């Protein structure tokens, strides 16, 4: 039987294997294997496997699986079971970002490193009061030597954030030739064309080695009308919504119905719209001659959105190392990125509700109430797209060597800066209302605090009560709005600086082998700032919101590891090893988080060289994100169910269900104010795993690991529905399940203070929320991997690798009074319970081919009336390559070979009629690549 260690090395070199390593030095063919450093430990050792499961993706794997970038490669791994709402949904806080979501806990719960060092996060948080993520788009794919993914917690090694896993990107450092690569990409159905040009070179000058790379990547957007399955309203499953989208309409309010449609058929054609009859709305006849079949104006608005953004990105990377002597070397790594992007969000609109009065200050002179709604095309007002400008720089520099001939040391200083800006053109709300209605206080006013419902003097209106001075329902040009537009700008920067000292070696020789240790001391300084212009934050800009916050903190840590040989191979019971690790992190900032101690314990047992059994237990913690603690009072727009209005109008009593309220009592878009909280505590938890690694034959290996993740004190923000439910219960004195609720309790006083009502109908005008430690979350599951390779003289070399992850259960509790429930199969949970991928590869001499098959298991349909699941979704990538000469190669990659489209369901009534956050809407995409080495 082939030696276990050497067979593992062979498989790892050939493909992404089940027993991957993080090796700073490769084994010599003519010598025994050198010691290596494995991700998840700072102790170098000869054995490649440890107590914690590890997966490796090499640069060859990225190419062989047909992935276009680092994010695509990492998002396909089986443990990345969650989703990240980034480019596929441009109407969000991180519309130009790419981040992982290991195990579905959230993008902030896994730690991303470059060469084992932390890097700056994206300055803009992923929500009004939410965490900052690591943007994988900052890492050029040509810089990657390999990527290692450690499953489970590793806070005892790396500190905060290493809750669900650690992703360690290892950069190229040994290039000894020059390579020029050009790649042209396009999609089958149009949109998304791309061009990528890269150059890498490397070599040595005496005792100095260098690797240098440059990368230019340009990509066109994919718009909402570039795919025939969502480019028209008739593509939706609900026939009642097959009409054109409402883009201009005029209504009477509460005369007597809340909304009564006034016919504007004669205005539609004049501005290039189609008149749409709406039989579901009660008509309002201003005159006896008015029609009983009222129309609004409709249009196809889908071309405004982008499902993948426009992007121009340039990157460079540099590695340097210099040998001072046989035992000491200096080293440095640099990555820099500049990116510009543009996202099509939605067609911008403006609307207003107003009471018409004969005399502005006389409420008894009321003549009627009206509402107008108007959206704007790009030739009318260029307000649809959001523009991004990003720059990042990451560096690692240090000295490493050997002390006393046997102890390895490293002193490093690493860090970086990330600068970010986004901007969009919107309307100043007060200026726009003044343009339409005249002078505030004289011609119109807002008598209800917190409400946009205005009163207008009839003298400013036509006989049909439409605005007289500005034809909001007529033909528009951009110059009409020069004095009312506002460019909302969000600017941010983040930094991360880390001074670290590491020492490792052998403490003593035991009968069963060397007792090894590693210790680390770190000083970390991090900061962030994100500032949106004040008018946007204050709510002065219509239909847009902004966030503000800044903070910094110093972080000190000390850690220690031991690798303890308990039994050696000659014991008769096999080889048994234990690992111990402990770390203390102290935070010096304005928060209540002082420090956290974590520990880790692991065992590996090899009853025979071909089989290893392993188990690991690790505590973990996560310090609150700086923005979660330091966010200034900011705003966004959200909606929920107005349970109080529902209960009062429906005459509900204690014990009656409130679920039906969501159908008819939506709050509409409400401004939600949020701010950070410095009193937040750290989130704590643990991870545990037990499994095996086996060499079944010389060329066939496998791993099987069962895992458990546990998290307490998870930080969350109250949902709109949760807050509205609390408010209703406290106002009514009863709930849908409780018959007696104390209105004067601290809980009720807090809930009532957070919901503001006003306007003529006492509707919700705004809400206020803060983050807090309440949540509990757990997950159990299994990971399986197997790989096989066979060499044949006649037919070439064949490779196969299968990865499979499955979630058994996901207990969860959000509010303290909630029951713990298994959320694995609940409709709102976007985490895939099963994920599988298979890589098949072949090469013979100058020709190679590979298939990458990625299967997303069944997932719940969020809005189905009864529990229902989408079928499994499988895509196939094809890669074929040909070496024309030793220095020239050509390749073709086809992503989504069979043009698999996202699942559609009858409940997906709104564009894009599918859950494109779960399922990639791009369709078939192909890349032609030419590479020249010299």
Structure overview:
The strands form seven sheets. The chain has a 22-stranded antiparallel beta barrel. The chain is globular and about 100 Å long. Helices cover 9% and strands 47% of the residues. Helix 11 crosses helix 12 (746-753). 45% of the residues are buried. It starts with a helix and ends with a strand. Residues 1-33 have low confidence and may be disordered. The chain is built from twelve helices and 47 strands. With 934 residues, it is mostly beta strands.
Mean pLDDT: 90
Task: Determine the strand fraction and express it as a percent band.
Answer: over 45%
Radius of gyration: 31 Å
Q: How would you characterize the largest beta sheet? A: 22 strands, antiparallel, barrel
Quaternary class: single chain
- Strand tally: 47
Q: Helical residue percent?
A: under 10%
Tally of individual helices: 12
Tertiary shape = globular
Terminal residue distance: 42 Å
How would you classify the helix and strand content by structural class? mainly beta
**Model regions low in confidence, pLDDT < 50 over at least 5 residues:** 1-33
């Amino acid at each position: 039987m082939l030696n276990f260690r050497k067979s593992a090395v062979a498989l790892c070199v050939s493909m992404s294997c089940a027993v991957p390593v993080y090796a700073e030095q490769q084994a010599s063919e003519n010598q025994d294997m050198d010691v290596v450093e494995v991700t998840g430990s700072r102790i170098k050792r000869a054995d490649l496997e440890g107590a914690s499961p590890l997966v490796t993706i090499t640069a060859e794997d990225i190419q062989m699986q047909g992935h276009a970038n680092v994010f695509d490669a990492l998002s396909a791994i089986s443990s990345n079971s969650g989703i990240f709402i980034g480019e596929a949904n441009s109407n969000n806080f991180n519309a130009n970002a790419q981040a992982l979501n290991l195990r579905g806990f959230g993008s902030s719960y896994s730690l991303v490193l470059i060469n084992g060092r932390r890097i700056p996060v994206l300055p803009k948080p992923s929500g009004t009061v939410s965490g900052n993520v690591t943007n994988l788009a900052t890492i050029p794919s040509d810089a990657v030597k390999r990527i290692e993914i450690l499953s489970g917690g590793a806070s005892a090694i790396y500190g905060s954030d290493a809750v669900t896993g650690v992703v360690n990107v290892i950069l190229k450092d040994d290039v000894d030739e020059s390579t020029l690569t050009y790649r042209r990409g396009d999609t089958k159905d149009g949109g998304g064309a791309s061009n990528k040009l890269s150059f890498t070179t490397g070599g040595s000058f005496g005792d100095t080695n260098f690797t240098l790379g440059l990368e230019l990547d340009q990509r066109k957007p994919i718009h909402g009308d570039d795919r025939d399955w969502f480019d028209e309203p008739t593509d939706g499953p609900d026939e009642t919504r097959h009409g054109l989208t409402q883009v201009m309409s005029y209504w009477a309010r509460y005369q007597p119905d809340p909304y009564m449609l006034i016919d504007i058929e004669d205005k539609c054609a004049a501005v290039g719209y189609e008149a749409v009859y709406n039989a579901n709305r009660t008509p309002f006849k201003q005159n006896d001659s008015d029609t009983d079949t009222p129309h609004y104006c409709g249009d196809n608005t889908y071309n405004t959105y982008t499902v993948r953004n426009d992007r121009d990105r340039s990157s460079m990377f540099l590695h340097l190392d210099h040998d001072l002597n046989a035992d000491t070397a200096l080293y440095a790594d640099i990555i820099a990125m500049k990116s510009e992007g543009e996202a099509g969000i939605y067609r911008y609109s403006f609307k207003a509700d107003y009471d018409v009065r004969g005399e502005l200050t006389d409420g008894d002179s009321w003549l009627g109430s009206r509402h107008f709604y108007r959206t704007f095309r790009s030739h009318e007002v260029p307000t649809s797209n959001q523009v991004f400008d990003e720059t990042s720089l990451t560096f690692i520099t240090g000295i490493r060597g050997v002390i006393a001939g046997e102890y390895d040391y490293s002193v490093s200083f690493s860090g970086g800066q990330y600068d970010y800006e986004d901007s969009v053109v919107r309307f100043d709300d007060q200026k726009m209302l003044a343009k339409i209605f005249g002078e505030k206080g004289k011609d119109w006013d807002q008598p209800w605090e917190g409400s946009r419902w205005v009163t207008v003097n009839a003298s400013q209106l036509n006989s049909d009560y439409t605005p007289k001075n500005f034809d909001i329902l007529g033909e528009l040009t951009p110059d009409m709005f020069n004095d009312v537009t506002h460019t909302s700008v969000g600017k941010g920067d983040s930094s991360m600086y880390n001074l670290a000292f590491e020492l490792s070696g052998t403490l003593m020789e035991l009968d069963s082998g060397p007792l090894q240790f590693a210790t680390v001391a770190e000083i970390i300084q991090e900061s962030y700032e994100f500032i949106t212009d004040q008018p946007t934050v204050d709510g002065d800009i219509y239909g847009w919101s902004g966030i503000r916050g800044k903070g910094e903190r110093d972080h000190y840590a000390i850690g220690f590891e031991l690798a303890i040989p308990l039994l050696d191979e000659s014991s008769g019971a096999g080889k048994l090893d234990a690992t111990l690790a402990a770390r203390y992190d102290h935070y010096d900032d304005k928060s209540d988080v002082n420090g956290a101690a974590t520990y880790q314990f692991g065992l590996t047992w090899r009853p025979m060289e071909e089989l290893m059994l392993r188990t690991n237990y690790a505590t973990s913690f996560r310090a609150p994100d700086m923005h979660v603690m330091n966010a200034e009072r900011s705003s966004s727009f959200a909606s929920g169910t107005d349970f109080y209005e529902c209960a009062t109008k429906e005459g509900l009593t204690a014990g009656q269900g409130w679920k039906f309220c969501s159908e008819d009592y939506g709050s509409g878009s409400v401004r939600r104010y949020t701010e950070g909280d410095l009193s937040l505590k750290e989130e704590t938890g643990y991870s545990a795993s037990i499994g095996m690694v086996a060499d079944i034959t010389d060329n066939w290996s496998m791993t099987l690991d069962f895992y458990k993740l546990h998290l307490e004190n998870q930080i969350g923000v109250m949902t709109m529905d949760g807050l509205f439910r609390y408010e209703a219960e406290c106002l009514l004195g009863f709930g849908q399940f409780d018959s007696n609720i104390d209105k004067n309790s601290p809980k009720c006083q807090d809930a009532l203070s957070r919901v503001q009502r006003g306007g003529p109908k006492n509707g919700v005008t705004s809400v206020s929320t803060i983050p807090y430690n309440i949540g509990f979350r757990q997950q159990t599951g299994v990971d399986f991997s197997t790989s096989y390779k066979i060499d044949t003289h006649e037919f070439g070399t064949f490779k196969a690798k299968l990865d499979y992850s499955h979630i058994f259960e996901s207990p969860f509790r959000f509010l303290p009074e909630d029951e713990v429930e298994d959320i694995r199969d609940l409709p709102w949970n976007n985490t895939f319970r099963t994920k599988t991928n298979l890589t098949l590869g072949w090469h013979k001499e100058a020709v190679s081919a590979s298939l990458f098959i990625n299967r997303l298991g069944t997932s719940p349909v969020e809005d189905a009336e009864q529990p229902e699941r989408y079928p499994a979704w499988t895509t196939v990538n094809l890669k074929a390559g040909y070496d024309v000469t030793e220095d020239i190669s050509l390749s073709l990659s086809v992503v989504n070979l069979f043009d698999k489209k996202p699942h559609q369901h009858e409940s997906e009534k709104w564009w894009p009629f599918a859950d494109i956050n779960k399922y990639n809407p791009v369709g078939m995409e192909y890349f032609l690549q030419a590479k020249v080495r010299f």
